[in-house]
Amino acid sequence: MHRWWKIVSGSSTSLERRSQPMKIRDLGVIFCLVFFVCGLLNPAKAIDRESLGEVMRFEIQKKRADQALIEFAKQADRTLLFPFDEARKRTSNSLKGEYRVDVGLEKLLAGTGLYISMGPDGQLNVVDDADLKMTVEGERGMRGKNSRSSNVGLGLAAMLMTTSGVSSAQSDAEQATGDDRATMLDQIVVTAQRREQTLREAPLSVVALPDEQLAAYRITNITDLTDGIVPNLTITPFGGANTTHGFMIRGVNPGGSDQISRDLPTAIYLDGVYFGRAQGLAVDLAELERVEVLRGPQGTLFGRNAIGGAINMTSKKPTGELGFEQQLTLGNMGKRASTSRLNLPEVANLSVKLEFFLSRRDGWVTNPASNVSDWGAMRKRGGRISTLWEPTENVTVEYAYDNSKSEDQEAYFHIHRLIERSGAPPFPDDSFQQLEPNRVSRGRTGAPNQPTEAKAQGHALTATWDLGETLSLKSITSYRELEVSQFNSWAGSFFRPGPAIGNLFGRVSLSDVDQDQFTQEFQLLGTLDRLEFIVGAYYFEEDADDAQGTAFSNELTEDGPQILPDLLFLSNPPDRAARISSRSRALFGQVTWTPPVLADRLDVSVGGRFTSDTKTGSRLFLSGEPAPLPFEFSENRFDPMLTMGYELTDDISTYVRWSTAYRGGGVDTRSFTFTPFEEDEIESWELGLKADGLNGRLRLNAAAFYQEWKNRQITFTIPIGDPPIFSQETLNVSEVTDMYGVEVDLSVIPVAGLTLNLAYGYTNISKQEFENPVTGELLTLREVMPKHTASFSANYEFRPLPFGRLRAFLGGRYVADSFSDPAFSVLAIQPSYTVWDASLRLGSISVGPGGDGNLELALWVQNLTDKEYVEYTFDTLDRAPLINAELRTYGRPRTFGMDLTYRY
What we know:
904 residues
């Protein structure tokens, strides 16, 4: 049995289903009002057999068959009925040139096991081998799980139709003027449950950003997902460093994300490969097809270290057709970039894609020192080769290798204000150190500013074997290496010069991280009459070394502040160093059952994951002296999941989800005692609503959640010895942190060509007071997550021009007040802000012989209003001679430029 859709002009006719009485109270508490209102339906546009003889021009590359059929329907201006589940398992041929509609479709599907047929009313259909004898009316009468996808039909109508409107008069007018702008929302396919589903089919809170939206926001890597673009997701540079970031979903903060001995709470994946470290994620690894943000614990299918959620990136695969793309970028602040992509023709069932990029930008805060880089400068370069080999009809092998390097100058640290309670006196009028209450373009003094270098490379091998029409086996194997050398001079802040420290005042933080990891995952996916299942096994192995040190960087002399000539860090023992090895093994599974009740509208999913973790290592240096001290952590865990989904109508569904996940334990490398801490976990309850409406013009996804953070890992300052020295210790606490909130994502097309997106996230974390386990002092933790985050975007496509297509974009994001680091002493607050971006794109400009190539020109601006917003803030409240001030880094000022892209 298959999922079928009938697509008509201006409407989507869903499958017939038995109507049964339904009582809302039987479903539990519904957390929001259902405001879905059906749009006006246009009559179906019949297709007579003679019209199929019309000769038309097609330009379709080899791709997944369902995508090819969608593109065919657009270019042919025809309605198609086809089995989506079967089509997405197969690969079409390319179709370039002029063909009759029926001949072109046959050529497109030759050898795929899909065939064309004509319905009794002149409807053009696509069927597979098993259904050659079935009629369309017979298919409409089918029941069961695989025929329950009218919501997908509604979304696919947006992609298959080329004209639509709220009235037939509008549709006719658009056809008369050649207006083929979108009037229905594209349906987005995600892999949030390790298999392809539409957003409405996935019973969890997930946001998917397709390639068009990524391009509009100029997102080329995961760290470009700046705060507010996806509500309830924040990404913060650690210590102002642009190569190490902390990822936080629903307030689950990362803590010491720079430490190799501590794991992230958000799992990061690219094409199914897990990234174990927070360093080096700012590099551009691949051309992205989409980015999925899974909010809430994902312990069953995405494993350990997904207590906050997961970010799942999918790259674009080789096409098997000769194709070339070259993009050149010029902008202010010396912005220059080049991106080249080449798809080679398929040879012996092997397709190859080559990618290479170069990018640079000058700093935006001038360093007064000579021959020293400005703050905020950046350079990147890298390449990737990906291959797709299909030796047989049922075996696919994908291999990718990437190699990249980034050089980033740290952000400039402004001295925003002195902290009154510290008793620190004001700066003298003649001091070079002065308050900087607003964003500056020139530093207060020269400071050393070497780039932080990150080098990353990796191999990924994915093999898929279709064992039958309903069963497939997948293997994902990867190996990655990472080298990061971090340099942070804090712009000469941290200390006041004075006799106590020999008139020294600057501090440099240096860090080296070397890491390699190997992962292996097996997945067995299957579909039975009323069951969908996935079972798998996973192995992760990581080895890492790090070393950190600090040194004074500046001195106040009679001639004024000077940079010290030699930091001597690399030639001397580090302040501290450690070596860590991690091993993780897991078995997991998830089953979705559609019981034969409630007209097949109920789905029940049960899953679980058993994980065995070990982490061993040792401290090598402490305070610049050899101080070997081993540690070991081990844990066996089982994390369950239960989800119940129910379709209220053909276009509205709801779900309830309960799940747990955990983050592995470890040790704090800044600890004097090197005492291990245990894993922490989150238990989550989530209630969701997903709806399509207004004839495919509206989509609503909403979720409410409640989470309990147990055995939480929290960092304390512990006095040791007499007189005391202060050690940083990460310990587990018995108090439970309560977290709750909502997420709403709304998309609508009010008129042809205009798409509006509005998203909002709210997270409330219970005020937490924790007792210092050594001193007994009751402390209040300052949480990092802003309570409110929101985003808005408007995309408008103008009526087609004789020489191309013009698109405009306006996007804004809002972030409420927050803190940069979870700490007890933090006084510095990041004020709320709103940032706007805009772009104008003129594309589809035919160039070259036969018009085989096309150009696109894009004008863009980021931070349109030149907003001064704080990106990172912290205070240096401690004993003299620290500066005892709040330090801030700001987001980039307004940047603007142009992209010129040629595609063939």
